[in-house]
């Protein structure tokens, strides 16, 4: 979890992964903790309670910093442009970016829920570089074809789509049913 707006995505993902019986490991940047407090009223302790294991970003010796620690996937939610740039350029200078680097080198699924708009050329180039290395760039853009009635429904839809990308069988993203029927 980084300092971009959209802390609700990280919290909802942790909740859904727990509901699905998946083990979660959390790295929240200091700015991410500030945002979860500002946007959702949660402190670090409440955020960390949502994960099975929590780490400090400075804990570069943590298990998730090694490719020998088997994981299925990693999601950076929300993903700031600073973190995107570090990941795209292999600057593994903290645990979050190191774990992302390990995820890529081990050819595991890395989903980056980038949060910024409009994009400048550096953002676009960094998204291209991350994609070329195997990451999935997933801006949590809302879908309206299912006629959401609340922000909660919009958040849930994006989260369910990410869970489906991760191969979580319990994911229930709303699918397009086509016109005329």
TrEMBL record:
It holds the Pfam family Flavoprotein. Its EC number is 2.5.1.129. InterPro entries: Flavin_trans-like (IPR036551), Flavoprotein (IPR003382), UbiX-like (IPR004507). It comes from the Bacteria. It catalyses: dimethylallyl phosphate + FMNH2 = prenylated FMNH2 + phosphate. It is an enzyme of class 2 (transferase). The keyword Transferase applies. FMN binds at residues 3-5, 29, 80-83, 115. Keywords: Flavoprotein, FMN, Prenyltransferase, Transferase. Signal peptide: none annotated. The keyword Ubl conjugation does not apply. Residues 1-157 form the Flavoprotein domain. Dimethylallyl phosphate binds at residues 145, 161. One of its GO terms (molecular function) is flavin prenyltransferase activity. Belongs to the UbiX/PAD1 family. Flavin prenyltransferase that catalyzes the synthesis of the prenylated FMN cofactor (prenyl-FMN) for 4-hydroxy-3-polyprenylbenzoic acid decarboxylase UbiD. The prenyltransferase is metal-independent and links a dimethylallyl moiety from dimethylallyl monophosphate (DMAP) to the flavin N5 and C6 atoms of FMN. NCBIfam families: PRK06029.1 (NF004685), ubiX_pad (TIGR00421). This is Flavin prenyltransferase UbiX. It comes from Piscinibacter aquaticus.
């Amino acid at each position: 979890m980084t300092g971009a707006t959209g802390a609700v995505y990280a919290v909802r993902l942790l909740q859904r992964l727990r509901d699905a019986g998946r083990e979660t490991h959390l790295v929240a940047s200091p700015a991410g903790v500030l945002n979860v407090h500002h946007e959702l009223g949660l402190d670090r302790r409440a955020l960390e309670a949502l994960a099975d294991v929590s780490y400090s970003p400075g804990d570069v010796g943590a298990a998730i910093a090694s490719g020998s620690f088997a994981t299925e996937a990693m999601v950076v939610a929300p993903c700031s442009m600073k973190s995107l740039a570090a990941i795209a350029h292999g600057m593994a200078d903290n645990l979050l970016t190191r774990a992302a680097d390990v995820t890529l080198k081990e050819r595991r699924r890395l989903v980056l829920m980038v949060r910024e708009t409009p994009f400048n050329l550096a953002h676009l180039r960094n998204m291209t570089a991350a994609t070329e290395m195997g990451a999935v760039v997933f801006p949590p853009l809302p879908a309206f074809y299912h006629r959401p009635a609340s922000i909660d429904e919009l958040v849930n839809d994006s989260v369910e789509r990410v869970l489906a990308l991760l191969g979580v069988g319990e994911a229930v993203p709303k699918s397009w049913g086509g016109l005329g029927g």
